[in-house]
Amino acid sequence: MSKTPQAITCKAAICWGIGKVMVEEIVVDPPKATEVRVKMLCASICHTDITSIQGFPHTNFPMALGHEGVGVIESVGDQVTNLKEGDLVIPTYLGECQECQNCVSEETNMCATYPVRWTGLLPDNTSRMSVRGETLYHVLSCATWSEYTVSDANYVLKVEPTIDHAHASFISCGFSTGFGAAWKEAKVKNGSTVAVFGLGAVGLGAVSGAKMYGATRIIGIDTNEKKREKGEAFGMTDFINPSDSDKSASELVKELTDGMGVDYSIECTGVSTLLTESLEATKVGTGKAILIGVGTEHTLPLGLFAILLGRTLKGSVFGGLKAISDLSIVVDKCHKKEFPLQELFTHEVTLADINKAFELVKQPNCVKVVINMS
Known about the structure:
Blueprint: E1 8-17, E2 20-28, E3 35-44, H1 47-52, E4 63-64, E5 68-76, E6 88-91, H2 101-104, E7 129-131, E8 134-135, E9 137-138, E10 148-152, E11 156-158, H3 165-171, H4 174-185, E12 193-197, H5 201-212, E13 217-221, H6 227-234, E14 238-240, H7 249-255, E15 264-267, H8 274-280, E16 288-291, H9 304-308, E17 312-315, H10 325-335, E18 345-350, H11 354-360, E19 368-372
Parallel strand pairs: 4-9, 12-13, 12-15, 13-14, 15-16, 16-17, 18-19
Antiparallel strand pairs: 1-2, 1-4, 2-7, 3-5, 3-10, 3-19, 5-6, 6-11, 7-8
Family: Belongs to the zinc-containing alcohol dehydrogenase family. Class-IV subfamily.
Domain Enoyl reductase (ER): 17-371
Cofactor: Zn(2+)
């Protein structure tokens, strides 16, 4: 008979307020009936982690940081039947019940039963994590920059134990969001043209998705010249650095496409002024722009004529990927090394050096910072 799980004392990266991050000793309680407690093995930094310490998506502090990562289940609640101790899992911030109206639809990944947790709490509106007697909030539905974390079992995906841990972390959010935007949201067609604004991990995922689904011209746009080589590694055919020209990014895209613009554009930066640019870069009448970049602004400017002339703008969470059925496909492709994910791995830190990671992400040659949790 297995022993009853007890509270665990461990280390985690905690944000006490805007910009105030410290590694603290915390307490992680045992999982409740439908939950699992996970020993994190590897985590990584996504742009949303940067915005979270700036107050987006919420300002519930103290906050246990991190939402990308992979770990092994340490204990399970007594109602969990599809997972067991020792399983390697990816925490997700969106679930998939496979039964609600949205899940059975082919139109959206926004599960109504297990939605995005904007409050930073588990589905029962409580937390299993505390620091100095205070409740700890998550960024979304989990906290991966912690040696141990608790998540509802419906927000984790079991993966093959032989998968590369860093690569599994990359596809837990950033890369998969971009890949999904090309695959599930834009629905890139064979022979089409695609523009990708921003060549971080999300943008490189979008480039990879566009290539995999048959785009013949993939234009990457970034002000960082060092991203040219990374983009080409994932399938980019053309590179635009807007800082090299007095023209707008959309004008430069049109110059490469006989004045027409592209079939699809994918905005990955979260820079508000690029929303209109991403639309203007697409074809009049049929162009489709996917917005996946997240900044801290809640109201975005949009040029009237950019969308009035028949273009489509679509917002997206997690690139339109369903957290079980679609993410499992991405995991399989990752396991088969169909993506050059090693190109994303540029820096590594320990949990104790988490504040160093925030400096590393500012460096021009940085794509992903891996946090070694072991």
